[in-house]
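User: Hi! I have a protein structure encoded as tokens and I'd like to know what sequence might fold into it. I'm fairly new to this, so please keep things simple.
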């Protein structure tokens, strides 16, 4: 028996029944699609939250500073003669220490920077080097004066064109037995003198090398 529809006051025709069922199906599919969309969005937001929450915060941890005394001891054992191990005091840290070709000469080079400030200071020991090596590193700059630091006479260099020497505007150099020691950078002369004084004993030992 056909269902009587209240607002029609009579039974539905077969076509009306088919139309009603089709409309109900359309509404169901439409509501299901909307719910699926909302669910997908919620899942996406949750995934993004988890990914963001898992990303480390803050600045990356800087790599550990090179162990200058340990590295210099290794080089010293290989060469059979003293190798520099400077000490600049509190506030300075070394961010590079390696043997490298500097001005065509193999050199043990340490780069020091001051925490929280700009500027740098290099201390280099040129192996089997002479004053010509210093000129190569300092772009031909010549020394016009000397300074006595802790009993050692150092040649003073003041490059007139720091941009041509890698921002080096002050340097100290002195012979050390078979080698040459160079302290250079854009730090104040007082800081360079401090670095030079910290290797006095090693320079004296080098000067005793036959």
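Assistant: Happy to help. Inverse folding works backwards from shape to sequence: for each of the 210 positions I chose a residue that suits the local structure. Here it is:
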């Amino acid at each position: 028996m056909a269902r009587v529809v209240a607002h029609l006051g009579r039974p539905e025709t077969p076509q009306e029944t088919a139309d009603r069922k089709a409309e109900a199906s359309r509404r169901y599919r439409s509501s299901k699609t909307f719910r699926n969309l909302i669910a997908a969005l919620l899942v996406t937001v949750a995934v993004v939250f988890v990914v963001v929450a898992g990303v480390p915060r803050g600045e990356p941890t800087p790599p550990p500073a090179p162990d200058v005394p340990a590295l210099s001891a290794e080089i010293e054992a290989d060469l059979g003669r003293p190798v520099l191990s400077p000490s600049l005091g509190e506030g300075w840290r070394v961010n590079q220490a390696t043997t490298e070709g500097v001005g065509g000469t193999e050199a043990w080079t340490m780069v020091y920077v001051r925490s929280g400030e700009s500027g740098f200071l290099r201390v280099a020991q040129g192996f089997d080097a002479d004053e010509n090596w210093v000129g190569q590193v300092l772009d031909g700059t010549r020394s016009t004066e000397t300074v006595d630091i802790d009993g050692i006479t150092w040649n003073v260099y003041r490059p007139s064109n720091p941009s041509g020497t890698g921002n080096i505007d002050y340097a100290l150099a002195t012979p050390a037995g078979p080698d040459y020691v160079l302290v250079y950078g854009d730090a104040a002369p007082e800081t360079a003198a401090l670095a030079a004084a910290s290797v006095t004993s090693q320079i004296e030992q080098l000067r005793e090398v036959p």
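A useful reference point when you look it over: Helices lie at 14-54, 68-79, 131-137, 189-197, 200-206. Feel free to ask if any position seems puzzling.
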